[in-house]
Amino acid sequence: MLAEVEVVESTGSTNTDLMNRLPGLERAVMRIALHQTAGRGRAGRSWSSVPDGMLMFSLAWPMKQASHQLMGLPLAVGVMIAEVLNSLDVNVRLKWPNDVLRNGNKLAGILIESATQPEQGSWIVVGIGLNLLVPDTLESELGRTVADAPWLARMDRNQLAAMLLNALARGLDQFEREGFGGFLQRWNTLHAYAGQVVQILDQGQVIRQGIALGADAMGCLLLQTGQGQVSILAGDVSLRPAD
């Protein structure tokens, strides 16, 4: 499927822009913004934007499945993005459920929103924020270390966006046919914390601790705890390595 590509100088959020247009979209649309003033991450968290230092875009894409049948899609998209970056020698790994890491720090984030259309499957909007060249001032503002990939900043931005779009187009077609099962082995190979003790947090509170075993065919995180193996749904929870 071909996607229409739009580039804007500045907007609030490319995800919001496309979600607001979903009832009227007739084809896939990739919307790239050089700057976002109200970028969003998962669970409504803000996404800090650095003009010219990031590649930020959203892709609106029609799916045959209804929204409730898209479990595991954020992990599958992570695989699509990571494989492109690894082909460019960035060497990234994946953090469950939706972060791309380089050297243990966040390089890219993924936000997926969806809207079910009666008898027409659903539309998804895949938002990607990829750090290319991040100034020290941003790390000071965030209070944590973030990753970047300066050599990607020297790459033709259109070429990089095209590579990511092509990977997403192929991957979303595969997901439509196979679900997350078609990406499971690849995700587990890229899993940043495989075999490590991790904590699962909900609103900042630790609710589980155990050894991260990997993902299952639904995209849940398998955790080996003192009480046995449990499956963690994504929802509004996050993962961090245990101290």
Automatic annotation (TrEMBL):
Its EC number is 6.3.4.15. CDD domains: BPL. The keyword Glycoprotein does not apply. The keyword ATP-binding applies. It comes from the Bacteria. Residues 1-176 form the BPL/LPL catalytic domain. GO terms for molecular function: ATP binding; biotin--[biotin carboxyl-carrier protein] ligase activity. One of its GO terms (cellular component) is cytoplasm. It catalyses: biotin + L-lysyl-[protein] + ATP = N(6)-biotinyl-L-lysyl-[protein] + AMP + diphosphate + H(+). Keywords: ATP-binding, Biotin, Ligase, Nucleotide-binding. NCBIfam families: birA_ligase. This is biotin--[biotin carboxyl-carrier protein] ligase.
